[in-house]
Amino acid sequence: MSEILESYVAGTWTKGAGTGREVLDAVTGEPVTRVSSEGIDMGEVVRHAREVGGPALRALTFPERAAALKAAAGAVQERKDELYALSARAGATARDSGVDIDGGAGTAFVYSSLGRKGLPDGKVVVEDDFIQLGKEGVFGGRHVLTTPHGVALQINAFNFPVWGMMEKLAPALLAGVPTIVKPATPTAYIAVAAARIMLETGALPEGSLQVVAGSIPGLLDQLGGQDHIGFTGSADTAATLRGHEAVTRRSAHFNAEADSLNASVLGPDAAPGEPEFDLFVKGLVTEMTTKAGQKCTAIRRALVPQDRMDDVAQAVEAKLAGIGIGAPGADGVRMGALVGTEQRDDVRAAAARIAAAGTVVHGDLEKVEVIGADADKGAFMSPYLVRVDDADRGEPHSVEAFGPVSTLMPYRDADHAVDLLARGEGSLAGSVVSNDRDFVTGVVAGAAPYHGRILVLDRESAPESTGHGIPMPQLVHGGPGRAGGGQEEGGLRAVHAHLQRTAVQGSPAVLDSLG
Fold it and tell me: Which of 167, 276, 287, 296 is catalytic?
């Protein structure tokens, strides 16, 4: 029997009791570890964060916290090969691992730099100049941001165990709020390994980072108005957490990032042979195959002009046919496995529902040719592109297959494209691939209320564009409606979101002394 994965709580590495939940290698089906938090005192976890981690972080200035974050991120970057090896067991190729591991470290580096350059050499942020509130100018107000005496609980998804942890840890750490990490069970062993690397630097004050592998029964019962809960995952789980008394009665700050039916729109100007046509096709294939499509920002709906459906279908099918699927690291492999066979089966079922609305352009839900692995033992699946000529069908706008699955649909004009985008009921990311400025302007203006981020991709921006699915730490990540209604990252906005904003009133001299 495989070993129980250790958690780091209350200053020690601790194994949960019992048999736990077994986690299997996504490629070979062999046991990797077992996950259990049984016997771990969640009240003690929270107490340690509040009474040990909180005071230690609040004693540091913003630049000192930034330096600690930089050291932790540097260690992850230096030892990334260890994490790459573990990530491969979750089905990730080297490219996939780079997005997660290098992306996580890179995000933390960005925040460290923002902390050094954009925050004061102190522990309080004064937001504005003196605001005069009386006729003589001897009474006024200013807003200050200070560190709450709480904890940040992050509940993460399985697909980005390192990036998901570090993009939440970075702003909380800079704000002086200790973090408790609850990683998703299927990839908890990767998140725990990354946390261990950061803790071994000694740069993070004790209690500023704890990680619980397994469930967290009763932990939310300990949280209230000084605390922050950051969740990434399904909309159903987000709704459950949002309804907890920690949020509804005790007013813990809650932020959710949920999966969404993101879309990309090909402009009417982008005919075959134009740069934008090729950029659209390349982007769609990339989003379908990176992390085997297990990305909350992946393109689920590809919207193209009615008269381009055949051209796009043929071009995408040709590229998908050349994607080697199999064991990460094997020659010719460009797409690895899904995180596990249970996830694969869920994706297949959802894809079948979408396929019932149209015709299959590429892929087979029943079989897949793999390289360097056994297709029956691993969680492999073919990229699956469905063509739905009736864009008003409900399935593509309501069913999400969280894997290498996308739907190709036609639109009539810009207004129709906006209407189809809106039918996703809120998305994390959208993109418009076009060199037609009027078309782009119309779609962006119409679709913005339904999106957290919109990428405009054309021949000019392409050389430096990070692509449809990559959120950047300098910009807000999140989305309305189905996407969770929350906001993460966004540079210093994310740090400020962890701080308490207080209006202080008094004389100019008193207010000037605040910072």
Answer: 296
